[in-house]
Amino acid sequence: MKRCLVTTLILAGLCSIAQAAPDTNAAEVRAELAAAAKPFVEKLADPELKTRQNAIRQLGRLGPAATAAGTPLLRAAKELAARQEAVKALGKIGPGIQAEMVGALLDDDPFYRVAVLGAMADWPRVNADATLVRRLAEQFDKDTPGDLRIAAATVVVCMAGDAKGDLDPAGGLLIKNMIDSLAGPEKNTQTATAAGLAAIGKAANRPVLAGLKSRSVTVRLGCAEALGLMGPAAGDDDAAALTEWLDSDSWRSRLAAAEALGAMGPAAKPAVGKLIEIAWKHGRPEAPPKDAVGAEAYGPLWAHQAAEKALMKLGPVVAQPPSAGKIIPLLVAEINDTKPGARRMEAVETLAAMGPAAAGELPLLLQLLDEPNWPVPAVIVKAIAATGEPAVAAARALTTQPNEQRQLAGVEIARRLGPTASPLAGEIAGLIAGAGTTWAVRVACVEAIAAMGPGGAAAEAALLGLIRPVKESELEREGDLRHKAFNALGAIGEASVKSLAGLLDNADGAIRGEAVGTLGMMGSKAGPAVDKLVEKLADASESVRLLAPVTLAKVGRAAVGPTTAALSANDPKTRAAAADAVGRMGALAASAQSKLVELTSDQDAKVRSAACWALGQMPPNAAGCDALLARFGDSAETSAVRSTAALSLAAWPEPSAKFVRSLAGLVGDSKLNDAAFEALRTIGAGLAAVSGK
Question: Which of 84, 359, 497, 577 pairs as cysteine with 387 (C-beta 3.0–4.6 A)?
């Protein structure tokens, strides 16, 4: 990896770059970061609470750069009045203070330990070392506060992969204690602990399976919940054990088993027959009296509904023989039962989950659309579309009917079918352009074309017909429709690039802006429109000028040459926008670096700022470092340019200790304070990332 080792900073503006040993430089930088944090650390001893709280917030702003302040912040968190600010700051600093945080988990105060764990859960990653795993295991005692166990379980979820369960004996102790703690009465604690066990992964699978046979009801239910959260990662043995629960006299056990099995995917196949019996074959339990309250009254019904939902989640599994042959007749019988209380809706939803296996019931589903009092037609539409290619003919028949609701149903089926519905693009285009088509149907048609992707190309002309200037009073309806039309053109892709490029010359700025944004959706496919897009860097509309660099960067390689050439434009706005664009291209536009270095001395401050930012997005190089240091070190330069130069230098690897010292000197400067904080935080994060690898 190329590295820029900045070792000298002369604030008078004379800058140079020297080579230094990375390890030595990193140690010096850490020392300077500690020095930058020191004034705030000293204020943590101030007798005034507001002063201490403000110092804690400033350390939080430094983020990973304040790693050396971890121990003082932990002491500050012991004080209840300052705990909230201290926890936020510790969370922003990150894993560089993990050793100190783990040590704090030995404290006698359980609520302090909750705070420490809460801060740790805010980190982007938590290293699953044996010491931390052992300390976490100690938090899972059924007699400890539920908040403490919830916090510990949250940290377990934040830890990476199966490592948290493989650190024997600490990992084994953690899993055992978590399972034992499920015996506590709090549901929230049980759910959090189950999520932690699921996050541990395969190392927890066997102990959790054993927990299904615990004497404690809550342990058994918690283990079932954990298996459900593991989903497809749970094994055949887990599914077999849960299937036995479906015969339990306890509705809680049946409910837990059904919920877990519904998440397991193919592993739950042996349970499908039993789920069918519970959900459909044996009939729905009688609803409790209206004045009934409590879980015991509604529990059997909840367990029954859980079996229904499990079958819906297991749709592809249920659709396989012999399950499909068993359940489809039951579903059809339920759909045909028009008595009050019949579960017709659930039956249609289950057919939808079975996908193409339910294609034989298309006539029945279409017949349901004619029922005037069917409560949710969208459920039927979903079931029809789920059958796949056989639904194309059904959608075609519906879209040709003069009834708006039938047209909407047909178009929605086409949208759900996506590319499969491409043969309908011509008919749907006709609906879009039809004089009698309602606004709601047009919107649905445009969304259906977008879902078809390139297969919707036959509707391009109809979509272009929707792109016109819109009055402010029409923005909510016609403006939304126009926006959806642009999205559909973007989804069509290469076939619509020429038309979109033509719209870049439209007199309406909003249309030009939408065209630029849509071309950006296409990425490299928009290459043929690059020259037109470069012209938009100088567009009369500010919104278009801001969008153009983003789109050129998304186009990528084809845009590098023309955009680099625009760095030499006479217009400063064009030069600044072009610098923005090549900066977004990053290493792909590294050939533009020499021109960017030149632009850091441009007469226009906005151009200088854009060039400084762009250099920071490029691979580090000596000339770029010199140019950025010159801008940063020039006290006569604008604060915006100096700030941008500082942030770019901070983002590059191995900034010098002297540069960090200069940044620390700007903390408190009314114009450069925010940039100094952000740069120091960025440098600290870079060091943390390197040390964490």
Answer: 359
Tokens of 592: 């533009």
The angle at the Cα of 606, spanning 605 to 612, to the nearest 5 degrees, equals 90
Quickly state the pLDDT bin for 284 (edges 50, 70, 90): confident
How far, in Å, CA of 30 to CA of 687, rounded?
Answer: 8
618 vs 638: CA distance, rounded Å: 23
| Nearest residue to 183 (alpha-carbon basis) of 157, 149, 134, 209 | 149
Cα end-to-end span (Å), the chain: 15
Q: Using the 8-state DSSP alphabet, how is residue 452 labeled?
A: H
Does 3 have pLDDT greater than 50? no
Distance of CA 495 to the CA centre of its chain: 31
Question: Two tokens at 544?
Answer: 């278009």
Residue 393's closest CA among 351, 371, 365? Answer: 365
Cβ(31)–Cβ(661) under 8 Å?
Answer: no
**Per-residue CA distances from 37 to 87, 99, 104, 309 (Å):** 17, 19, 21, 55
258 close to 274: Cβ distance less than 8 angstroms: no
Instruction: Tell me how long the chain is.
Output: 693
> Rounded CA gap, 41 and 59, in Å?
8
From 533, 540, 534, select the one nearest 518 (Cα to Cα).
Answer: 533
Peptide bond into 47 cis (omega under 30): no
SS3 85: helix
Q: For residue 305, what are the contacts with CB-CB under 8 A and spacing of at least 6?
A: none
Distances (CA, A) of 347 to 142, 268, 379, 520, 661: 43, 20, 10, 43, 69
For residue 149, the one-letter residue type is: R
Q: How far apart are CA 43 and CA 541, in angstroms?
A: 50
Contact (CB, 8 A) for 57 and 89: yes
Q: What is the pLDDT of residues 227-261, one digit of tens each?
A: 999 999 888 899 999 999 999 989 999 999 999 99
Q: Determine the pLDDT at residue 516.
A: 98
What pLDDT is stored for residue 163 in this prediction? 67
Band of pLDDT at residue 161, cut at 50, 70 and 90? low
- Are the C-beta atoms of 42 and 29 separated by less than 8 Å? no
* Closest to 413 (Cα-Cα) out of 427, 374, 402, 625: 427
**Radius of gyration of the CA atoms of the chain, in A:** 32
Distance of CA 318 to the CA centre of its chain: 31
Helices (H) and strands (E) in the chain — how many of each? 40, 0
Treating both helix axes as pointing N-terminal to C-terminal, what angle do 170-181 and 130-139 enclose, rounded to 10 degrees? 20
Q: Is it true that the peptide bond before 322 is cis, omega within 30 degrees of 0?
A: yes
3-state secondary structure of 159: strand
**Helix axis angle, 404-417 relative to 439-452, nearest 10°?**
20
Q: Are 552 and 574 in contact (CB under 8 A)?
A: no
Q: What single string gives the DSSP state of each residue in 454-469?
A: GGGGGGHHHHHTT---
Type of residue numbered 60: G
Of 191, 189, 162, 160, nearest to 175 (Cα)?
Answer: 162
